[in-house]
Amino acid sequence: MISFNFAAMERDQTEELRALQDTLYFIGGKWRIPVINSICNGHRRFREIERSIPGITTRMLSKELKDMELNKLVKRTVYPDTPVLIEYEPTEYCRTFGKIITEMINWGREHRRVIVEG
C-alpha cells in the first residue's frame, strides 16, 4: 500500500481541488471509463465498441465519442469506403490515463473483497 506524507509537502488546496474536479469531470458519468477501456482493449469501430459495453445506447456512445474527440482523448479516422468506415483509437494523451484505470480496477477488486469478507 502506498502512503503519502502530505504534511511534508507544500500544498496548494485550491489547485488540488481544481485538479480533482477536472479529473472527476473527466471520469464522471457512467460511460466514460467503459468507453476508454473498450477502445484501449482494441475495439476500434463504433459497433464493436457498442457491443463491448452492455447497456450503452447508440446515442450515448456517439455523444461520448464526440466529447472524447473534442477533449483530445480519441482520434477519429474516416475511410472513404462503401459503406464509409470510421475507426476510433486512443490518443497518447488518453493512454496516460491507463495507470489510473488500472489502479481503479485494483481498488475496486480490493474493496469488493473487503466488503464481501466483512
Automatic annotation (TrEMBL):
It comes from the Bacteria. Keywords: DNA-binding, Transcription, Transcription regulation. It holds the Pfam family HxlR. SUPFAM superfamilies: Winged helix' DNA-binding domain (SSF46785). Residues 18-116 form the HTH hxlR-type domain. This is Winged helix-turn-helix transcriptional regulator. InterPro entries: HTH_HxlR, WH-like_DNA-bd_sf, WH_DNA-bd_sf.
